[in-house]
Amino acid sequence: MGGSGYDEIFKRLVKSGYRGDMPEEIKKIKKEGNEVTGEYVRYASGAGDPNRVVFKVRDCPPDCGDDKRKNCEASCLFGAIVRDMEGNVVIKQNNCAGCGECAEVCREYSLVDKKEFVPLIELLKDRTVPVFVIINHWFLQGSMFFKPGFRQEIIANNRSKY
Ligand code: SF4
Ligand code: SF4
Fold this sequence. Notes:
- By secondary structure, the chain is mainly alpha-helical.
- The protein has 2 domains: 5-118, 2-Layer Sandwich (Alpha-Beta Plaits); 127-159, no CATH class.
- It has helices at 5-19, 22-32, 37-44, 72-75, 101-105, 121-126, 137-142, 150-159; strands at 54-56, 81-83, 89-91, 111-113.
- It has a two-stranded antiparallel ribbon. Strands 2-3 form a two-stranded antiparallel ribbon.
- A hairpin with a 5-residue loop joins strand 2 and strand 3 (89-91).
- Helix 1 crosses helix 3.
- The longest helix is centred in the N-terminal third of the chain and has 15 residues, at 5-19.
- It is globular and about 50 Å long.
- The site of one iron/sulfur cluster (SF4) has 15 residues, from helix 5.
- One iron/sulfur cluster binds at residues 53-54, 75-76, 78, 80-81, 91, 96-102.
- Residues 87-116 form the 4Fe-4S ferredoxin-type domain.
- This is 4Fe-4S ferredoxin-type domain-containing protein.
- InterPro entries: 4Fe4S_Fe-S-bd.
């Protein structure tokens, strides 16, 4: 699994959620993965501290902060990203607004944002309760799962039951 492992894992979890074989898929992902794969699976499946959106899963390469295109500190409008005495990136939870911008910028996938979608899959499949989904624009644009009209499909599918 390459540098984009986090997105890839998320896609695999969504697909397996719809197929109904997520536990088997998670086992496969972990077997194929590396030392951070377990953490990726955790946050890509929506687990982790419910009060946090962004998580640091591994150390940063020493030269990363020099690259303006992936400068997580500069991307944070809330001053929530600081460095400790060793120069490691730390998120000050009290300042963090959970916007996810730093995780977007971090192409090393040292910072990842928790995905809230996977826990909804069973609800969407069951259709026993109304599900209202708010999906932001980059998610719709960036995900291979959401063809044009998918949002309307979710709404229509759930409406049709009530
Ligand atoms: S999630 Fe947003 S507010 Fe929190 S550290 Fe990242 S950029 Fe800053
Ligand atoms: S968190 Fe990501 S963007 Fe920020 S310094 Fe580390 S590797 Fe670079």
